[in-house]
Amino acid sequence: MSKYRKDRVNDAVTQELSVALRELSDPRIAERLVSITHAEVSPDLKIAKVYFSTIEEPKETGKLLDKASGLLRHLLAERLNLRITPELVFVYDDSLKHGARIAELLDSIRPKDPPQESDQNGENG
After folding, report:
1. Tell me, which fold does domain 3-109 have in CATH?
2. Over 56-117, what HEC string results?
3. 10-residue block means of pLDDT along the chain (125 residues)?
4. What is the pTM of this model?
5. Where are the domains of the chain?
């Protein structure tokens, strides 16, 4: 499969699963604020690694998503015109948490009050 087609399928799976996740009637998943960050489909389209992020317990959320994977796969099959609908494997994506930690570290080394530039003409802009 060409890289271009694989990227399109990855994007389509990510988008459609994000929509399908919001439409699930399971309140245990709906109340956890789960978002699909991206998906990687294998070259043979048999397996899709779906990366998700959440503010709740990632292990428990992953278990709930694994239980709902059959329904999500069915919804994905209805929405995408693929000959093979991939099996869904959910993986916690901690890149958002990692990015927040980096931002926190950068904020801690920045000066708290930046020096004020004084107007040489004595005028206020």
Report:
1. GMP Synthetase; Chain A, domain 3 (3.30.300)
2. CCHHHHHHHHHHCHHHHHHHHHHHCCCCCCCEEEEEECCHHHHHHHHHHHHHHHCCCCCCCC
3. 86 95 86 91 94 90 94 94 93 85 87 64 55
4. 0.76
5. 3-109
